[in-house]
Amino acid sequence: MLPEEITVKGRKLIWHHGPLAADDPLAAWDGLLAGRGLTEADPFFTSRLADLPDPLAMTDMDRAAARVARAILDGEKIHIFGDFDADGVNGTAILVEALRATGTEVSFSIPHRAAEGHGIGVEPVHEAVAAGIKLGISVDTGTTCFDACAAAQEHEFDLIVSDHHLPEKTLPDAFALLNPARADCGFAERKLCGTGVAFFLLVAVWKKLAEAGERPDFDLRVLLDRVAVATIADVMDIVGVNRILVHHGLQRLNANPSVGMQALLTVAKIKKTVTAETIGFFLAPRINAAGRLQHGEAAMRLLSTHDTGEALKLAKELDETNKQRRLVEAEVFKQAEFVLGDSEVLAVYDQRWHAGVVGLAAGRLARKHGKPAAVGFVTPDGVVRVSLRGTPGFHVGNILNACSAHLEGFGGHAGAGGGSIRAGQWDEFKAAFGAAVSSQAAHAADHSLQPIDGILGLNCMHIGLAERLARFEPFGRGNPVCLWLLKDVQIADRRDLKGGVTRLKLTDGSRWLAGIVFGANGMGDAIEPGLTVSVIGELQQDSYRGNGAIQFVIKDVMA
Prior knowledge:
The chain is an alpha/beta fold. The protein is built from 16 helices and 19 strands. 38% of the residues lie in helices and 19% in strands. A five-stranded mixed β-barrel has the order 15-16-17-19-18. Strands 4-3-5-6-7 form a five-stranded parallel sheet, with helices on both faces. It has three domains: 12-46 and 448-558, CATH 2.40.50.140; 49-314, inorganic pyrophosphatase (n-terminal core) (Alpha-Beta Complex); 341-441, Diaminopimelate Epimerase, Chain A, domain 1.
């Protein structure tokens, strides 16, 4: 039933769930529900906070929450060990804001990407101890930080690790280790990001304080905008618990965002409804830019401030940093492609490359070639640090574990990770990396395939169906957008607008549909007026035109 031709972007169409063809909006909707194993009344469409699991079900949570609650009640200081990416700084921000709201004195530290790399350093632990602090909490890091945990134990410093990265076979000796990826845990199906773990820690702490008759006058729901941004930025599966968190986080972003998030929305000139796509394309890159080219602390200050003027100033600085990041990233990617040549193993490093963009370059390589890539830089003391990015079907954390003999320190999850190469062992690492990728390749998704949900006629292109499809939001990994094939439609008109946007008028001879393409250059001359083509895309409500208008967002074309 599907066309055998290859699309303009080099993809072959396959069914996402099974054959579905419809020329009626209700038939299309019913077929989609059946294909995805859902019903109209499925809890998937409700996303209630009341359905979130009890945080005390997470391994070590009872011990961790009780210790934090005791520190709050006894007036102890608490130090937060954050990380420099969007997940780490958002998680640090929500812990700092919530704990300070209880009257607790809270300090934090975020490592410098190039100088210190991921993880809890031993020196920050020593500094916290020297400051008279007896309790520390990590965010989005710590599961493989054995030295830092040992230093904490030595100084009787209670270090609570909250993280989501894949653990090694043994765990560090922390006071408590909150990580759904632990073999003895599995909380929330192991899909939470670091900020998500930190949020559940706060929920558990609030429960402990309530039991003691000291529940804080602070609503944890105000933190959900940052939980949502971190979850999307770290490319977590938007299903189950994450779907609930992101759904409510998006509601807050649209109705009452935090001061810092509002400043980012203003600087990014976002005037329409904020979606998961908005986070991925406009908010997350600006937050990440700080840690990539400068220091993650700038993003942390933005995400935790209550001063509108300071927030706008910081957001503008991040915007400028992000523009610079794009230029540096493009150059590193170009050089990496040249150095790799026709190498089958996508592992490369260069001392000229900037620490903050090697992960992005690895991501571009992975997407282009359909398999994981590792791109590294050289620290001032001569250590090669690599960032890994994966593609569907591969697990970067497991790849890192397979290369652990050649790594000094590392951490990762399904989609991304990184580590430091042992001195003189780059060739050995590259060989182990290539072998691990090859081992997983047999089970990985073919990036040359394009799944679609069904074949629809223009009669299906109705506001009623568009409204129903919007119920699947938030979209993301694990819950992809609904993609449809419209066969043999004529392009009656084309208008190229600013920002690489192209608007089309599509017709089957009797019915009309507005089409829109973002980045039409990638489709060459396949969408010229007068051509009859088959288009693959997403049916959406057109918020720009309003009044029940719809549009078909074209992702690919079969000429």
